[in-house]
Amino acid sequence: MFSEYSHLSDEELVLAADGELGSWRAARVRAHLAACWTCRARMRRIEETIAGFVQMRSHLDESLPPVAGARARLKAELEALAQSTNQRRPIPAALAGRPAAAAGAALALGLCILFVAQFGSRKFWPASLRAAAAIPRPNLTPGAVRPVLKDQICRDEAGNTAGMVPASLRRKVFEEYGIGDAEPTAYEVDYLITPELGGSDDIQNLWPEPYSKTVWNAHVKDALEAHLHQLVCSGQLDLGTAQQDISRDWIAAYKKYFHTDRPIRFSGGLRRE
Amino acid sequence: MSAHQSDSAVGLPFSAARASERAPSAVEEEVIQLFDQFRDRLLRYALSFGLSPEDGEEIIQEVFLSLFQHIQRRKPRHNLQGWMFRVAHNLALKRREANRKAARNAGESSEALSARFDSANPEEQAIHFQRQQRLRAVLRALPEQDQYCLHLRAEGLVYREIAEVLRISPAAVSVSLGRSLARLSRADGG
């Protein structure tokens, strides 16, 4: 490739300057440069041009905003994100293994954010965490129950009743809601009627619930489910009514059973009375 | 679309109960560390697209939020630097395109937008001024791909990493850099 009699190409000079040549080729280039003033002068010009380019970019440094604010904001957002990932329940981890290429998924998320940012909302929260509504669509997720008796529900520990939903079904739920490309970890595939209240694994009872910072999020619904379970098992509420209320409008049910218009803050996670 | 892609092959030690994810707090810490390390370089690169500092900052936030998910889900991390630059690159492209579209709709010329990178620093020393002007003119005339290569190289990426960011071959990177540096150098040295 390198003839001792012909000069080095621009590409070879740049590769050599950048240390991108293998040792054998690098040695050949060094030998040629040692012998050839012309190429050495060209090499020097290239180095000067690199310096000029770096100098030209220096104004970019001057327009960098101070890092402190951005760092603090990122920290706050990461904490919120970590918390919502940390406290989630039934089905979560299984979603993590979706096959989209890492960059692709992250990119989809990023672009999604960008899309939303562009349309007015300048909040720095991943759009996919905000995109889905807090309430499932009744035509897609009317809710479905399995034939169980109250006693069975109250005997079972919550963990025993919440079976794993197969990955294929989870994907179907995503597709059904038109978010097949969304970042899977941004959503929990949640039961509308929780298994603790006799809800089934039917697709009609599953919907993608965003792990977002919205007021009516998965954690709030967790609290409602625990509360209803307790009411049913203590005989204060009929199981059918509980199922109906939570499937019709779980936010309304929350307001009704907690006698409040806003979610109550529970320190240390869910309140189980 | 297999749902059973294994992320655990990455093999990082962790004690979380969930087999395919890492503990969020540990990931959070790592992301902040990477932010401290890479923020300026990524932001400079985003700004080289002619974006405003505000747009650039927003993009960088998005890069690191995505990075959190990327790391937490134990995605491949042999080249996190390249990964971050690639996400930043794609977001910057999108943002620039959106800005141009918005400008078109508002009846502005897209030149006004891309002028940001070209605008000379008023405090620039007179002695450098002409040289800078010449270099800028040549740079602007280069194919976009060549400009990306130059900026990525200036941010310290090696050819293999540049190739990954731009999804081209390392050979194409060296051809591009050789060509554009030769052009810049001719304009520079006269």
Describe this structure as you would to a colleague.
The complex is a heterodimer of chains A (273) and B (190). Chain A has 273 residues and is mainly alpha-helical. Chain A folds into 2 domains: 10-62, no CATH class; 68-258, no CATH class. Chain A contains 13 helices and 2 strands, in the order H-H-H-H-H-H-H-H-H-H-E-E-H-H-H. In chain A, strands 1-2 form a two-stranded antiparallel ribbon. In chain A, helix 2 packs across helix 3 and helix 11 (218-233) packs across helix 13. Chain A starts with 9 loop residues before the first helix and ends in a 15-residue tail after the last helix. The model of chain A is unreliable at 88-103, 112-132, 157-163 and 267-273 (pLDDT under 50). Chain B is mostly helical and 190 residues long. Chain B has 2 domains: 19-119, no CATH class; 120-190, Arc Repressor Mutant, subunit A (Orthogonal Bundle). Chain B is built from 8 helices and no strands. In chain B, helix 3 packs across helix 7 (159-166). The longest helix of chain B has 26 residues, at 80-105. At the A-B interface, helix 1, helix 3, helix 4, helix 5 and helix 6 of A face helix 1, helix 2, helix 3, helix 5 and helix 6 of B.
